[in-house]
Amino acid sequence: MSCSDEYFSHSTGEDDDLIQITPAVKEKLRKAKYGVYNHSAVELCHWTKKSFANEGTCYKHKFYGISTHQCMEMTPTAMNCENRCVYCWRPAEFYDTLEMPEQMVDEPEVIVQNLMAERKKLINGFYGRSKNDKAKLDESLLPAHYAISLSGEPTMYPKLPQLIKYLKTLKATKSIFLVTNGQEPDMLRRLESEDALPTQIYLSTNASNKKMFLQVNRPRHRDAWERWQDSLRFLSTVDTRTVLRMTMIRGYNDGADDIEDFARVMSEGDPHFIEIKSYMHVGMSTQRLKRDNMLGMDEVRAYAGRLCEKMPAFSVMDESEVSRIVVLQNKSRYVDRWIKSYL
Q1: From the annotation, which residues make up the binding site?
Q2: Please, how many CA atoms are within 13 Å of residue 319, restricted to the half-sphere of its CB?
Q3: Which parts are annotated binding residues for [4Fe-4S] cluster?
Q4: Judging by DSSP bridges, how do beta strands 273-278 and 325-330 pair with one another?
Q5: What is the DSSP string of 17-74?
Q6: What is the pTM of this model?
Q7: For binding [4Fe-4S] cluster 1, which residues are annotated in this chain's numbering (predicted)?
Q8: 3-state DSSP call for residue 237?
Q9: What is the pLDDT of residues 198-207, one digit of tens each?
């Protein structure tokens, strides 16, 4: 039986024949504290939970001002992705479809309303803990920030422009971040042409050449490297905040000999920010990589410094030691690091 048969089914309801995660996999996801609706999912991340108890915030707050406890991390493509990245802590081995026909997916409003309900169920469990801040929990029920990432590749969702435009209409919305692997450059262009750009676009940038790209990202498309380069060029001109995110993996893409090539690639993308982060040995990635594949914070700092030497337009903006990440800022294509809606 193929993974697509095992992990996906189609609704037999009266209204539509929609893509769904099978009940067995849905149950596994729910045990892992996901909220699931058909092909979409939501989760409360580690930092959101900590923020409820005033025990810390994620680096998105430190770097850009995002309200951690009001962040809704969600995806319209929970089990759909074109890559099988070696470092992914999600169940990439379960992804086995490269198509999401428009007539077989949920409408954006349906996704958001149902994931909101699932997220509320997850949050309700935190009210009974005395250490949690009730005011923050109340505020968290109306997200100010949407991180469209979580699992799978969101640009595969054929109604992504409508989803982002719908999120913008919600009264509490202050920002929307989209994370992409760059395999759907046409969808990125649709976001621009349909006036549906998010506040910030992240492009995963984990390779400086095609051979490395295939080794790290394990793509399913034969022209995956070319697709990614197309997305990189798009980021260099698009009129919204852009970030290249590099996940450093020891023995894969951290070589000193590759720094110049990475600098060339990143300069071509000309992003507003570059996030350089160590691979973390968690989740399903532990079945593919070893703990030794993680880099220490000093190594990440040193690599970031060497990149800046090759790219004079960039300088170190900030860092988060607990997350082993350094962020660089583009002085030539400058935007204020702080998102205005939070000021």
Answers
A1: 45, 58, 71, 81, 85, 88
A2: 19
A3: 45, 58, 71, 81, 85, 88
A4: antiparallel
A5: --EEE-HHHHHHHHHTTEEEETTEEEE--HHHHHHHTTS---HHHHHH---GGGEEEE
A6: 0.93
A7: 45, 58, 71
A8: coil
A9: 999 999 999 9
